[in-house]
Design goal:
Helix content of chain A: 40-55%
Shape of chain A: globular
Oligomer: homotrimer
Order of helices and strands of chain A: EHEHEHEHEHHEHHEEEHEHHEEHHH
Structural class of chain A: alpha/beta
Number of strands of chain A: 12
Number of helices of chain A: 14
Distance between the termini of chain A: 17 Å
Low-confidence stretches of chain A: none
Largest interface: A-B, 43 and 37 residues
CATH superfamily of the largest domain in chain A: Phosphoenolpyruvate-binding domains
CATH class of the largest domain in chain A: Alpha Beta
Largest sheet of chain A: 4 strands, parallel
Strand order of the largest sheet of chain A: 3-2-1-10
CATH topology of the largest domain in chain A: TIM Barrel
CATH architecture of the largest domain in chain A: Alpha-Beta Barrel
């Protein structure tokens, strides 16, 4: 787990749907290309899959991963069933983890647990993973864990849950606003759910303190309709993703390849951003050689503290370039990318 | 304590005022009808009653309850004196609780304690209730407790105070923004106090995790004046109450029967809301029978998680209908109400 | 530490800059007059001073304080180097504290520690002060401590850090938004950093519960340019300071004498505010003599709770008048000031 770990997109794909080809969406995720490849692909056995198709969902994952996982550029973490207040969900989830770890454990990066409760429940989920790992003969710590933050109990224990990550396989926390709003008894009185700003700010802080990944919630108004024509709601989703990026949420939930393509880009510095921050770093580096502490660039004071903000931008670009050179190649012009790869970072 | 417990309105009424009939407002609350009946009536011995009239306030309550309480549809919880940082307030409050429990305990549902501090102080208040209950010969747990959240110390301990509710008679937390703002040294620089969004979000979360009731703060701009005419500020109050409902605050503070009539309605699903949520539930129920996991209704994905939001609406209507059939009868047309009472709730 | 302690302004001044007179900004702060005198002057050895000039910064402070500190109306707390995640910073900071305590300890009110982490790290910094104090032969507790809240770890432990203040020399917490945003990985996507409302609200609450001082973050857009003319950004800074005052943040960070002059005024009640609150107090005092509990003034209910808000205004004016009579003399007309100094405060 490092600051430059990529987690721009968390794309859920129902692992079985009632079609002739029930693995349609799973296959689509596993074979996605370019900006449509999510950093994390999450084959969904939970809410996205009908109760009657849970077994087929597990089979589809076990069937498809050996063929597709080796060539997939991102990480793969299925979402299994779980609920802090429902034993039958935990039992089914435990069985799903066990089967997948046993059959395709070497192709998996971990599992996602929804509806966790207080710290004890998160510990239980981690224990399920440890057991499954051992039974499957996988090395200790192979399987990472992400949880969905969508209950009042988990929000209440958020700080302790994040501290638990230091000694555990917990590597990411994902916001689940729909269940969360329902648990709190919130109402979309004028058509909008609350954004839960306090929760998002705490999520960004506690995951940063624990050096794990924070992911925003899904955006389900996928399409708009006007005058009889339905179109992809690119504005609404980008607004949410940009807000998440602003407050330090590392990545965004995607329900569709188009959302993945957008979120991968938003969580990537723009050319203008990169040029601006590079210019400030270069100006500061020059001033530093002359022994000045505080430098004013374009009327803004730059010091060690502001410098680190600019260095973050450069480091992110370097990380994306390492695993997705086709994305950085498309996104930045050559001269700018070279500056980003070559500049000296005094503080970072 | 269940999810469907009604707590839409917390109406304070000064228990003694300097008039010929000093129990005027108390009587008015106890004999209110229809939508003006608060779910909780709070005869106020604290800030609403002048220091010189505290004894008369206690006497008024002891005098009026035997006549009116048996016919009153809501719960009755007097607010006594208390302050974490003032021993004389706690002593007077203790005496007020003792006298009322002894004289009219069988007509009371509990007491409200203002200006509590950290968890220890809340425990002390609970101990006062337990003692009074025993001395009055009431069954253990008869008297519930609500507290006003209006000090920095109580806000700091909010999570622990809510966890204490699991083993105690604490059943509700009410926000007190005026004292709270004063404690923090806040200023209404442009005429408006802060809304304290972080506190309200935490209050909604922690009370939900503890399964107790959360109530918003009073709205004291009761009246507006324009061109010489003073009128009830229906807009301002409704805006506040609607915001509270949106974020899952269960009920609102009322200072006036008109506010009670508004808050009872806002915390009740509108006909349009009920129809919309019923339609989604019915569409999902139909799709479920065909074995589909994720259903799109009006461009929005509906799954088990979103479903629960819609089920909340229906369950609230059923709870109100049980205790206030005249309110549901007035508020909904017959066909809609029948659908709400009859629909099958698959997840809830 | 009392409620009336003055901390309207926290002005940092680089203690050494690469000019002929390297103590230019330090001298300017120490000899400031009238509204430009900060309540706390913070000679900055950390980010405001170039790495090559740290020693000269310490020397400048040791050199200037004996001459200027005795006549300086505010408190003096140098900011030394420190970082929870950098041992070399802590070692240099420890040495800086030791030297200054030894050489000019009698002219210092304390020290400011940046980039502290969890409670343990804050304890360590307090230990450094205690050691330096003892070695310098200063009375126990002479040197106070303020910390900059600018890491995810410190935000996570904010409640515990504030509780630690009860048994320690910790007397103030200052927000550092630039480093904080960088730590969380936040981005100024549309040119603006987040305001971190949740953090500010928690900071106001926890410092109030601990009875210590809360200070907002620096505002670095010092100047604007239009049509070739650069001018002081008075609007932007005042907006930020007013927001801080509204939510009970006690004082504001200043980077410039003009900012100090503004923040000193904003954190001082306006004449209109003072007149309004005095009128309500006077009206309430009159009504109280007639035995009324709840009083309506201009359509707003005034009770003991609202009264305290008004009393806060009066008490603040009295505190400023005690130490800066020239400021209150300039700010208020004589009749108004006399009313503030003479009115009886029934509740406060």
């Amino acid at each position: 787990m490092t600051d430059t770990r990529l987690c721009r997109t968390f794309q859920t794909a129902p692992a079985a749907v009632p079609r002739d080809d029930s693995a349609k969406f799973l296959d689509s995720g596993l074979t996605s290309e370019g900006f449509q490849t999510p950093d994390w692909l999450v084959p969904d056995i939970e809410d996205g899959t009908a109760p009657s198709m849970k077994d087929e969902a597990v089979e589809n994952i076990a069937d498809r991963l050996p063929d597709h996982a080796p060539d997939f550029a991102g990480e793969i973490l299925p979402r299994v069933e779980w609920a802090y207040d429902g034993e039958e969900f935990r039992e089914r989830g435990t069985e799903q983890v066990r089967r997948l770890a046993d059959e395709v454990g070497e192709h998996l990066d971990g599992f996602v647990f929804p509806k966790v409760g207080r710290l004890d429940d998160v510990r239980d989920a981690a224990g399920v993973l440890a057991d499954a790992e051992r039974e499957a003969g996988l090395a200790d710590g192979t399987l990472e864990m992400a949880i969905i933050l969508e209950t009042a109990a988990a929000r209440s224990d958020l700080r302790e849950i994040c501290q638990f990550a230091a000694d555990s396989r917990l590597s990411g926390i994902v916001f689940g606003p729909v269940d969360y709003t329902a648990e709190l008894g919130g109402r979309a009185l004028h058509g909008e759910r609350p954004r839960w700003d306090g929760l998002l700010e705490a999520l960004s802080n506690e995951t940063s303190a624990a050096d794990i990944v924070a992911i925003g919630g899904p955006f389900d108004q996928l399409f708009h309709e006007r005058a009889g024509v339905t179109y992809y709601n690119a504005e609404g989703y980008a607004d949410q993703v940009e807000h998440e990026a602003t407050i330090g949420i590392d990545g965004s939930w995607s329900l569709h390849p188009k959302q993945t393509a957008q979120a991968n880009r938003v969580h990537m510095p723009s050319g203008e951003e990169l040029d601006r921050d590079l210019s400030k770093i270069e100006a500061f580096n020059d001033a530093k050689r002359e022994g000045t502490g505080a430098v004013v660039v374009d009327g803004q004071m730059v010091d060690e503290a502001t410098y680190k903000n600019f260095a973050n931008t450069v480091q992110k670009v370097r990380a994306i370039d390492e695993s997705h050179p086709e994305q950085t190649g498309e996104h930045y012009d050559d001269a700018l990318l070279s500056r980003a790869l070559d500049v000296e970072l005094i503080f970072n």
